[in-house]
Design goal:
Elements (H helix, E strand, L loop, with lengths): L1 H9 L11 E2 L7 E7 L2 E7 L10 H13 L6 E5 L2 E5 L4 E2 L2 H5 L1 H21 L9 H14 L8 H15 L5 E3 L8 E3 L4 E3 L6 E3 L1 H11 L4 H12 L5 H28 L6 H20 L2
C-alpha cells in the first residue's frame, strides 16, 4: 500500500518537477509523506474515505481549510481525490510529556478554545457531527458483522456505553478536532499548530478535553486544572462526573477503533497490541469512574 501511496504522491498535479516523497512516520489512519518542491516543503496525506471509521475526505478538506482560516492549522495548497497537500510547519512535534508540561497547558487550552469557537465561522458546505456514542454503536455493529474476536465482549461494553451516555446528559455544541493525540500538536517556537482533521465535527467540548487528557495520561490534578482553565472556574462535582464519563467513552472509542482496524486496516501496525493497551486503560478509568 505504501508503494502505491508514494506513486500517488509523486504524481500529483501541483508539483513543478519530479519529487521524491519521503515517508512521515506516526500516522495510523493515513499514509503521509514530506515532499520538497520549488524550494518549499509540504506534507502529503494519502487516503480515501473510510466509512467504517466515519472518515470522509470532503469533511477533512473543509475542516482543514477552515482551521487554516482561523489561524490554527497549516494552509491547504492542493487537493485531489485521495490526496491532501499542506504547507510544512517547521517545529517540534509534541510527545505526551510535552503536552503534560504545565507551561504548555494554557497554550493548548487556548488553541482548543479557538478551534471550538473560531473554526466553525469559516466552515463551508456540509459538516459532520462526531458523537462518540453513535461511533461506538456503529463500531459494535461492524465488529459483529466482521466476526471480530472481540464480539463476545460487545454486550458488556455497549451496556457501559449506554450508561455513560446517560450520565453525560445534555451538551453544549462546539466544533471539535476529536483526535487530540500529542503528535497532532506542533510548536514552531512562537505558536502552536494543530494538524490532522480526519475526525473533525460538531461535538461537546468535553470530548476534546477528555480526549486530550486520556491520550496524554494527565494526572488527576492536571485534569482539574484543565477543566478550570477551559471553563474559567473550578469544576463542580457534577461537571467532574460528566467529564469522567466522557473520558471513559474516549478510551473505549480508541479501543474499539483498534478492534475495527484489526479486521479491516491494511496498514502495517500492531492493532491487536493497541487494542489491548487501550482496553486496559479503559477498564482502569471506568473502574475509577464507578468509584466516584
Amino acid at each position: 500500500m505504501s508503494d502505491a501511496a508514494r506513486k500517488t504522491a509523486m504524481g500529483l498535479s501541483c508539483w513543478t518537477g519530479t519529487v521524491d516523497p519521503r515517508p512521515l512516520s506516526g500516522g495510523i489512519t493515513n499514509v503521509n509523506f514530506v515532499v520538497e518542491d520549488a524550494g518549499e516543503k509540504f506534507v502529503v496525506r494519502i487516503g480515501g474515505d473510510i466509512p467504517l471509521h466515519q472518515v470522509m475526505r470532503f469533511n477533512e478538506l473543509a475542516a482543514s481549510r477552515a482551521a487554516h482560516a482561523a489561524g490554527v492549522s497549516p494552509e491547504v495548497v492542493h487537493w485531489e481525490p485521495g490526496a491532501l497537500v499542506l504547507r510544512f510547519i517547521e517545529g517540534k512535534t509534541f510527545g505526551a510529556e510535552d503536552v503534560r508540561k504545565k507551561e504548555n497547558l494554557w497554550r493548548i487550552v487556548e488553541l482548543i478554545r479557538r478551534v471550538h469557537k473560531e473554526v466553525p465561522k469559516y466552515l463551508r458546505g456540509p459538516a459532520l457531527v462526531f458523537w462518540v456514542f453513535h461511533v461506538l454503536r456503529d463500531y459494535a455493529a461492524t465488529l459483529r458483522d466482521g466476526d471480530s474476536r472481540m464480539a463476545p465482549e460487545l454486550p458488556r461494553l455497549m451496556d457501559i456505553a449506554a450508561r455513560l451516555e446517560s450520565e453525560i446528559g445534555p451538551v453544549d455544541l462546539v466544533y471539535g478536532h476529536n483526535d487530540l493525540l500529542a503528535a497532532n500538536f506542533i510548536d514552531d517556537g512562537d505558536r502552536l499548530w494543530l494538524v490532522d482533521w480526519d475526525y473533525a465535527g460538531f461535538n461537546s467540548p468535553l470530548f476534546d478535553l477528555a480526549n486530550l487528557a486520556s491520550n496524554n495520561e494527565f494526572s488527576h490534578d492536571m485534569e482539574g486544572e484543565l477543566l478550570a482553565v477551559y471553563f474559567g472556574r473550578p469544576a463542580d462535582d457534577r461537571m467532574r462526573r460528566r467529564y469522567a464519563a466522557m473520558k471513559c467513552a474516549s478510551l473505549l472509542r480508541e479501543a474499539m477503533w483498534s478492534m475495527v482496524s484489526e479486521i479491516h486496516s491494511q496498514l502495517d501496525f500492531d492493532y491487536v497490541a493497541y487494542t489491548a493497551e487501550n482496553l486496559d486503560r479503559f477498564e482502569r478509568v471506568h473502574s475509577d469512574f464507578l468509584g466516584m
